[in-house]
Design a protein that fits this description.
eight-stranded parallel barrel; TIM Barrel; disordered N terminus; 11 helices; single chain; alpha/beta; 2 domains
Amino acid sequence: MKCPSFLTSFKTGNLPAQASLKFLLLTFSRMEVLQLFFRMRLYKDSYSVLWSGLFLVSLLWTGCSNTPEKIRLINQKRKVMLAAHRGASEVAPENTLAAIQKALDSPADFIEIDIHQTLDSQLVVMHDATLDRTTNGEGAISDLPLSAIKKLDAGSWFKPEFKKEKVPTLEEVLQLVKGRKKLLIELKKGDDFYPGMPHRTIALLQKYHARSWCVLQSFHDEILQEIWQNEYNVPTHKLIVGKLPMLPVYFDVSLRFGYFDKYYRASAINAHHYFATRGFVKLVHNAGFKTFVWTADDPSEINKLVDRGVDGIITNAVSSLIVQ
């Protein structure tokens, strides 16, 4: 499909194009725009006109800094939180009790997990909405009761030694962690919003006196709104992703080009590390939020993110990192 000219859209008053360009230039430095240009070269055929325009504009943009980044040891000067992505998923099958236990033994400050809701309204820990990738079962989590899901093997896909691992419930994870580290819990949506999932999550946090060591995050505004409207008094993070008009990169469609007003009750705005430029981090901090970024595993990349000012890094490689 042929992409319309970005510059033509901009010159003729196309507001989405103008707003997207404004957001890009406010958020990314000149050097960062050039890096995006080269990183997104796979789009060069359908978006050649668009990126040519952005390339020229970036060369003319003089109000941003492109100071070379410094590499330093993790946490050398300030505390940056490390979150074990789906548990210690580099060394154990993701979102299993084995991965949670290994994360408890790691330098991580947080353990990040994902939850879905079963047919009988039980909360289970899994990233995907379906069982296919990380178990020997098939189909949507929402179509099966917990008793059926508990019969599945959730570890052999990773290594044979984990063949006894089962899909854990959120309750089992809370019982294992017991406040020894903080939990960063992502509430998933499945094919549709899981009715009552935020309320059931909070009920479990209350049962195990876990609200002080748990944080809830979601991409979905309706989930966060339910948490906020019911004044559940638990910290929340907003995950952002989506597609900006006229751009072959993704950002949150619910954001208004860098204004985070509607999320004032969240304590952090979290994004993919691809977007964690100095400009973006500054934008989020100036709006009064912290930012956790995902998923960075390479030590040099993690040190770059620390240098850019992020507050937390979600990583698969937490077991192999040496924090100084």
